[in-house]
Design brief:
The chain is mostly beta strands.
């Protein structure tokens, strides 16, 4: 990410009687632009604390390419495999 910084300084500062503005006998002005490697969150940290029971965030890999991170809905082994996660949630099994 690029970050910009502006700095202004003056020596012998006073208020101008003509304009009413702050002025100084010696002025300095500097501007800088810096670049930093800064990674952004894919998911905000609070998302992990808000996951419900039997939910996860998975970064899958298909053997060739990594897939983007996504929500993963898990079912315990003792629940019927023919019934979807969302049906179990609706019935109150999860």
């Amino acid at each position: 990410k690029a970050r910009y910084t502006l700095a202004e300084g003056g020596q012998g500062a006073h208020i101008s009687l003509l304009s009413g503005r702050a002025t100084a006998s010696k002025h300095s002005l500097s501007a800088s632009k810096t670049y930093m490697v800064e990674s952004d969150y894919v998911f905000q940290p609070r998302v992990f604390t808000e996951l419900q029971h039997a939910q996860a965030i998975a970064m899958s890999y298909d053997g060739l390419n990594p897939l983007p991170p996504q929500y993963c809905y898990l079912k315990p082994h003792y629940l019927d495999v023919q019934t979807s996660y969302f049906e179990h949630v609706a019935r109150g099994a999860l």
